[in-house]
């Protein structure tokens, strides 16, 4: 057995683990990242026939107020931001297209809500922006809307927005306080949605650059087999013939994986509770085309089917060969849809029909399709029955957690960045 000692060991080389390692190494900590596979976790970029396909939801929401933007300034990360144009976002109403009310201009032009309903919807947005409405932690947004004296069209519009940003087909189950806190950020930001040029791989490479330039170490294909604890602390982790000791530990791996290695520890039951939760899962159907099919929009959302298409290559030209186009369709799934081949095939057929409708001729230009029927965009879906995992349990004073399953700011990848940043600050506060 070989034993090595660090200030901080970070288990998991996804977005949360890498951002924590970059921040802590920048602050002078001797850091090691242990990753069982390749870096990136679910946030990886796969190159197929000259196209760069991103796994996981790779849009950054509210980027000018995001933790990633703060980390960019602090660590001097080189990020090529590609900002989404809300004026090119449309709703497909079946027989017509209309603007998505993603900003004030879109709100006035949209046909989804009309007349007094539009005024009511605007008023609710204004209350959210001014923090006059904060919701209640024990009341779902669906129940909150039932208590309001507003029309069904306004309710539907608010839930449609929630579906879009929380990637769920059951937005009514979102806690109302989570709903309003999220939209307070989105409605007041100058950059509501952005992509990263070069995809997730570009960001992963930047985190690695910061870690290594600050003498941090990264171990890939290093699977943690067990954790050794005393009465109050985690002492070490073991991977094969290597024992890694540290003063502090950050575990940035999902609860289901934590459950396997913390068996018999004081936190076993706490972790098992969160390991029982369901993730947010979607169907993603990407197509790489040899030539661009030009349309007046880069985002089209089918309200009836709860699915949307984004022209990724419009914002990130590095993801396609010269002259090519990369389109990504996403369909929201229910838990009952998973594993049901007939239902999944029906979703795929509907997506292809949506491609036919809005990107005519795509079949003749198709170079490579990529379908993922179980794309996890968030490890724990936020509902009234599923609450995010805390950053630490009091049983072990040097054990912290980070990831999109943890408490933090925003949704999706932003939860990874914010939880990693908060967990890192808890470690630094001990000095």
Task: Describe what this molecule looks like in 3D.
- This protein is an alpha/beta fold and 431 residues long.
- The chain has 3 domains: 2-44 and 59-79 and 198-277 and 382-428, FAD/NAD(P)-binding domain, CATH 3.50.50.60; 101-188, Orthogonal Bundle (Guanine Nucleotide Dissociation Inhibitor, domain 1), CATH 1.10.405; 280-378.
- 35% of the residues lie in helices and 24% in strands.
- The chain has helices spanning 15-26, 67-75, 104-109, 115-129, 141-147, 152-166, 176-188, 199-213, 255-261, 268-275, 312-315, 341-358, 362-365, 413-428, and strands at 2-11, 31-34, 45-48, 51-54, 60-61, 81-83, 89-92, 97-99, 193-196, 217-219, 226-229, 234-239, 242-251, 280-289, 299-302, 307-311, 325-332, 366-378, 399-401.
- The strands form 4 sheets. Strands 1, 2, 10, 11, 12, 13 and 19 form a 7-stranded mixed sheet that branches. Strands 8-7-15-16-17-14-18 form a 7-stranded mixed sheet.
- The longest helix has 18 residues, at 341-358.
Number of helices: 14
Shape: globular
Q: Strand portion, in percent? A: 15-25%
Helix content: 25-40%
How is the CATH topology of the largest domain named?
FAD/NAD(P)-binding domain
Largest sheet report? 7 strands, mixed
**CATH homologous superfamily name of the largest domain?**
FAD/NAD(P)-binding domain
Distance between the termini: 31 Å
Rg to the nearest angstrom?
A: 22 Å
Q: Provide the CATH top-level class of the largest domain.
A: Alpha Beta
Level-2 CATH architecture of the largest domain: 3-Layer(bba) Sandwich
Number of domains: 3
pLDDT < 50 runs, ≥5 residues: none
Mean pLDDT: 88
Structural class: alpha/beta
- Give the number of DSSP strands: 19
């Amino acid at each position: 057995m070989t034993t090595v000692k660090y200030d901080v060991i970070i288990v998991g080389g996804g977005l949360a683990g890498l951002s924590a390692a970059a921040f802590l190494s920048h602050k002078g900590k001797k850091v090691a990242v242990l990753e069982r596979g390749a870096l990136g976790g679910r946030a990886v970029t796969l190159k197929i026939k000259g196209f760069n396909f991103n796994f996981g939801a790779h849009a950054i929401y509210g980027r000018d107020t995001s933790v990633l933007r703060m980390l960019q300034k602090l660590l001097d990360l080189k990020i090529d931001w590609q900002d989404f144009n809300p004026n090119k976002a449309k709703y497909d109403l079946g027989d017509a297209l209309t603007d998505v009310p993603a900003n004030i201009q879109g709100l006035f032009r949209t046909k989804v809500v009309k007349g007094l309903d539009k005024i009511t919807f605007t008023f609710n947005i204004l209350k959210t922006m001014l923090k006059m409405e904060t919701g209640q932690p024990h009341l779902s947004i669906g129940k909150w809307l039932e208590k309001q004296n507003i029309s069904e069209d306004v309710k539907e519009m608010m839930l449609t927005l929630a579906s879009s940003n929380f990637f769920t087909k059951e937005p009514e189950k979102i806690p109302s306080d989570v709903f309003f806190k999220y939209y307070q950020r989105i409605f007041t930001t100058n950059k509501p949605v952005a992509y990263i040029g070069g995809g997730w791989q570009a960001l992963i490479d930047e985190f690695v650059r910061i870690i290594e330039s600050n003498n941090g170490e990264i171990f890939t294909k290093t699977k943690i087999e067990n954790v050794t604890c005393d009465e109050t602390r985690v002492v070490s982790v073991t991977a094969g013939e290597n024992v890694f000791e540290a003063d502090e530990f950050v575990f940035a791996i999902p609860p289901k994986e934590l459950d396997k290695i913390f068996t018999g520890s004081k936190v076993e039951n706490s972790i098992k509770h969160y390991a029982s939760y369901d993730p947010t899962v979607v169907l993603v159907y990407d197509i790489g085309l040899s030539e661009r099919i030009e349309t007046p929009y880069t985002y089209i959302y089918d309200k009836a089917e709860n699915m949307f298409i984004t022209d990724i290559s419009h914002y990130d030209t590095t993801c396609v060969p010269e002259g090519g186009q990369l389109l990504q369709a996403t369909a929201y799934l229910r838990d009952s849809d998973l594993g049901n081949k007939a239902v999944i095939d029906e979703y795929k057929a509907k997506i292809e029909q949506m491609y036919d409708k809005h990107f005519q001729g795509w079949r003749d230009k198709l170079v490579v399709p990529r379908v993922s029927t179980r794309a996890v965009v968030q490890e724990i879906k936020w509902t009234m029955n599923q609450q995010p995992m805390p950053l630490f349990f009091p049983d072990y004073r040097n054990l912290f957690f980070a990831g999109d399953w943890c408490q933090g700011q925003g949704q999706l990848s932003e939860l990874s960045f914010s939880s990693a940043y908060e967990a890192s600050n808890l470690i630094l506060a001990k000095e």
